[in-house]
Amino acid sequence: SKQFIGFAFALLAEQGRISLGDDIRTHLPSLPDLGATITIKNLFHHTSGLREIYNTLYMVNRRPGDIIFQEDAQKLVSYQTKLQFQPGSQYLYNNTEYMLLADIIEAVTGEQYHEWMTRNIFEPLGMMDTTIMHRQGQVISRVATSYVREQGEFTQRYDNSTLQGGGGIYSTVEDMTRWIANFSSHQVGTAQTFEILTESGFLNNGESLDYGLGIGVEQRDGVESWSHSGSSAGYRSMLVYLPEQERGYIFMTNTPSLGAPAQTLTQAFLGDVLDTTAEEDEGEEEEEIAEAALPLEDPTLYTGRYLSDELEAFYRVQLDEGILILRHRWLGEFPMEYRGEDEFSFSNRDGSLSFVRDDSNEISGFVFDNGRTIGVEFHRFE
């Protein structure tokens, strides 16, 4: 979905209706000033320093599959008190950014995002079976059910979100063929549009990101390649296009098992141009050994109640049969493993805690890193 909104911005930039260097608060003035300018390019290149919506909401009381509304993105940013990092200094993949991009399109065009995309991109390309989910419970005709294999059996997964910009586009193989054909025909847009779309971003230090406006841009075996994958519920997709050869493919599935079939398809269609075969392993593969937790002299130093004012999220650290447990009323229990210097990981989830001490060397809080959301501060209270 991200390359579609990238194409939309390339069209608007070419028309002079927007600049990719604009401060996002120019178009979304209700967003807070977080101490540094965030540009539209920062949003596209995943370099803004904003919170990632999925990982952040999963720290509060949401779980995978729960509803996320489009308006949640601006709410999330409005409560953020500081950036995760200075804009342009790091790359960290982020869906919040693309939700804000959809809001910017609405601000610039005066139209709802899904309506503008349909009128300016889908309909002119004849993509009549392509739509954007923009409201909860929206009925979309001929949608394949998505499945995930769990414990040897398939279960259904549902897309309950109205997330736009970063996802929410439903299409067919036929319509996606029309989309990829436009990469060379320029039925909608011009050569300049695609130059804007596929110009790679850079970090502040000059490092190339190999990423344009929602689409990967890289050299593979000396051949330029444009590509991006998609994921929602049990759905998976992949688009690969070689502009010099004017060849590409689209892979769409309603289960997460994309890897091996996509590799086979790539070999079949592009194997004469790209080396798509997997490298053979040399010797036996080394078994990955989990790092053992360090002993902890006095675990009671860390027990207590902790609150994030930013997220209005509340956790307890409790001692249970000699093991420290991070507990959340709705999300469950997470056994903690000591890594030294007041830092902990978890035995049953990703993420880490770094405890903070005050001037008296007493534990006063912790900093929670959860995937793409980093540096969330919690303070201790009694």
UniProtKB/TrEMBL annotation:
GO molecular function: hydrolase activity
Coiled coil, from the record: none
Organism field: OM182 bacterium
Membrane-spanning residues: none
Protein name (record): Class A beta-lactamase-related serine hydrolase
Span of domain Beta-lactamase-related: 1-262
One Pfam family linked to the record: Beta-lactamase
Keywords: Hydrolase
InterPro entries, alphabetized: AmpC-like, Beta-lactam-related, Beta-lactam/transpept-like
Gene3D superfamilies cross-referenced by the UniProt entry: DD-peptidase/beta-lactamase superfamily
SUPFAM superfamilies on file: beta-lactamase/transpeptidase-like
Signal sequence coordinates: none
